[in-house]
Design a protein that fits this description.
single chain
């Protein structure tokens, strides 16, 4: 088992995502004063941040992305935003 790529990198990505999401939530809650709206928007943003971090750190390979539901679309979108090199 490759512990670095399997355990360490996802944990690191989750930690970075948590810090960014926390400050995003605080800023959004300050602007909207709504806990529900801030929470729902932050959850969506957190999922996107985590996924992007997993691709940028190469924790998820292109082949692994194809195995996900709608993997082809995900790979095309990642290439469009230069998250994966052609």
């Amino acid at each position: 088992q490759e512990w670095f790529r399997t355990f360490f990198m996802p944990t690191l990505c989750a930690g970075i995502m948590a810090v960014i999401s926390y400050f995003f939530y605080l800023g959004l809650h300050t602007m909207t004063s709504s806990v529900l709206v801030s929470l729902l928007v932050t959850i969506v943003v957190a999922v996107v941040i985590y996924f992007v971090l997993m691709i940028l750190t190469r924790t998820l390979s292109e082949n692994e992305l194809y195995d996900l539901p709608m993997g082809g679309r995900i790979v095309r979108l990642a290439k469009k935003f230069a998250l994966i090199k052609e």
